[in-house]
Amino acid sequence: MKERFDNPDEPMQIFTRNAVGDFVEQDIYTCAHCKIVYKGKKAAYDCCRQYKCTLCGSNVEPHWAMCRGCMDSKRLAEATEIAAEEYTGPVYDDAQSLYYESLEDYLDAVDKEAREEFVFACTATRLADTSPARLASDIVENLLEHHHEDAAVVDYDGLVQDLKIWLAQQTAESWDVNYKKKIRVRDE
Ligand SMILES: [Zn+2]
Ligand SMILES: [Zn+2]
Questions:
Q1: I want to staple 11 with a disulfide (CB 3.0 to 4.6 A). Which of 29, 131, 165, 167 is the partner?
Q2: Nearest listed ligand to the Cα of residue 66
């Protein structure tokens, strides 16, 4: 990894000579440390600069404005709190990177002392909620893909009805964390 500097030296500007021999300023600079050439002074200055978290000042990877910890805290602080008794649905524990089927499950599984202040709400997507009409249209489109232009299916509505019954039996469900909503699981 290359060395980085908290306060890099001033980049050096490149000049060229025109036809009559005068120096002409160019918007081209070289990094004072590694001599790589950049368009624009800022890019050259940033080349070997140590990037810092704008909130806590700790070192971060190039081009990052905040460290992981500060980003997580900011996201949590900006999330809207929902009352535990008003929430039904799965929850996500950021500290463990784990999903729980319900808030009750989380509270049962994680001891009070081991809890963070909040867990995040989740959105559940159920396979059973798939639109039969949309699925039918996907199937038919797929079936007819390699047929002639006027090819069509018969009893399209029958397919939709059958899919409706079939989809209703599906139990698969996926959860996505919703970082905009949090639920308190430990007193301050
Ligand atoms: Zn450099
Ligand atoms: Zn930070």
A1: 29
A2: 2
Ligand 2 centroid to Cα of residue 142, in Å, is 50
Q: How far apart are CA 119 and CA 80, in angstroms?
A: 12
Q: Give me the pLDDT at residue 171, please.
A: 96
State the distance from the centre of ligand 2 to the C-alpha of 97, rounded, in angstroms. Answer: 20
User: Which regions of 59-166 does DSSP assign to beta strands (E)?
Assistant: 80-82, 91-93, 98-100, 118-126
Max Cα–Cα distance, the chain, nearest Å: 84
pLDDT, averaged per 10 consecutive residues of the chain (188 residues), comes to 92 93 93 96 96 96 95 96 95 95 96 94 95 97 95 96 98 96 92
Q: What is the residue whose two structure tokens read 């995040």?
A: 120
| Ligand minimally distant from the alpha carbon of residue 9 | 1
**Local structure of residue 9 (DSSP, 8 states):** P
DSSP state of 21: S
